[in-house]
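Protocol step 4 of 6: structure prediction from sequence.
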Amino acid sequence: MTVPPATHPAWRLERRPHGRLDFIAADGAVHADVDVLRAFPVSAPAGPVAVVGDNDAELVWIESLDAVAPELRRLIEEELGKREFLPTIERILTVSDGEPAEWSVLTDRGPHRFTVGHADDILRLPDGGAAITDTFGLRYTIPSIARLDGRSRRFFERAE
């Protein structure tokens, strides 16, 4: 189901006291503890969003967050913000040889250690940055590879 622009959907989301969201369908059916996921978090952060329930069943597809009412958009963006832990790597301290590789980094949220399964989990972005996904699906970002210190750049290029 796609939400048309400038209309209120026949469905709604409600935050429960424990913090999770419920999806209430047009027919009144309640789907508890749903997840809100961006389709293309790196390349289209304002783009398509899916609300999924049990067994990853898609309940609704939202082509653009601009297409929903401000209150609903705020709720969706709050949920995405909680879900999308995206620390910025400021320095790469070490990267082990081989695959999977153990990374030790300094981020804007402090030091982190994580494992990268293989080089395909390291994505160079068109703007000169990079996105790295660890084996748990958490993403890290590097805004500018060129701005990293020399040692960090060498670790990054060796890991690719």
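Step 5 (inspection) to follow. The first strand starts at residue 12 and ends at 15.
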